[in-house]
């Protein structure tokens, strides 16, 4: 209590409203500041992920190009003209096929001497290949490799080679070459922000092809301060000293010695201007909130006093008239208090009526429970048997009472009564088929029909169809009224099949009394029970008037 008094001393409602305005505003400002910091961090993290993904996407584009070149080399390597040494035919067919792809094929022997080059007419004298290092590396590894970018001796342009080593003679290797400028068409910055560049870098760290504002030409060494940091398969490089206010993403082209890189400026909204706006706007809002809270407090204080005066006079037993205030909700409270003063006597009469009904229904339930226990006492051979039987029947009766209570004893739908009692055995829920047109039962019918259904289901679970997985129960009701007769009749059928063989019991117990004599008497009808070997058949024919609520 002392702690509460410390934090909430006695004060006017105006003081509390002003304090509440300030207490709400300050955490909001702190939260917004935290959100701004988190937003900045999230923007940077998202940009890093996108940069790495864009570099990976570019690497896949270049990988497809290199794979296509490798596939072309494999196809050409198995060419019959090449195997038969018909280099002229091989040159003509290859040059025609690759004319539109800006690709050229070179065949060399083990010394690197060019045997043919589709950049030149067949028969033109040719020297050794310009990139012996790449040829020797491919011959040593025995697999297809991409070379570093180099100045081609035949073309005079910056080119790169993809080399396929062969074991046959005299062609020791097939090389497919392309100008680096032609590869540039695949290196795109489309989808990147303004000021971003992209490049393909070979194993030695030179630019093969690039595009963007950086304007790097083929053969240009890439920044040696950055390359040693690009060690993993893909990632992001960030260093304010090397790339101020910039970000670089990179990805290794899988299966090749090249890398793709993209880099550009970090474009983020100015957090500083947002901070200024937050501080200036926050101070202004707090001042406005304090003034508004003070004005509201004065109005609320007057309203509360008027309502309190009404409540005091009502507590003294007076009939009060509603006061008029400027607060709509307070006016509603005033009207409610005024109506309550008029309704008090009626409420007391209703309470007396409810108490009378409660006593009446309690006596009926106790009479039913008494009769049930007397019957069970006659047929039980031990206290334990009597206790279990009483508990089981009371459980079924409780379900009916709970249903009626939920509907304020105004009746319950037949289907709901059936569901509550039959689905109380969840292990047998899929074994019971229920059908019939629904209607609302009278309160006494809810209890009596519930007792009968509980007995039928309990017996079936213990001895009948519901005691085995393959057993089935069909429970249905339908109108069987005869034409021309005023009294409507309903027929309820409980039919079991698929259970253990049924034999008629030697003596009638309380359960038989409930499903036969009690059911027939309660609904002014007839009950037929047939203990058929394939399953119990129970049929109740009752007057609809004893069941349906008017």
UniProtKB/TrEMBL annotation:
The keyword ATP-binding applies. Keywords: ATP-binding, Kinase, Membrane, Nucleotide-binding, Phosphoprotein, Transferase, Transmembrane, Transmembrane helix. It catalyses: ATP + protein L-histidine = ADP + protein N-phospho-L-histidine. The keyword Membrane applies. The chain crosses the membrane at residues 16-39, 277-297. Residues 357-438 form the Signal transduction histidine kinase HWE region domain. Pfam families: HWE_HK. Its EC number is 2.7.13.3. GO terms for molecular function: kinase activity. This is histidine kinase. It comes from Rhizobium laguerreae. The lineage of its organism: Bacteria, Pseudomonadati, Pseudomonadota, Alphaproteobacteria, Hyphomicrobiales.
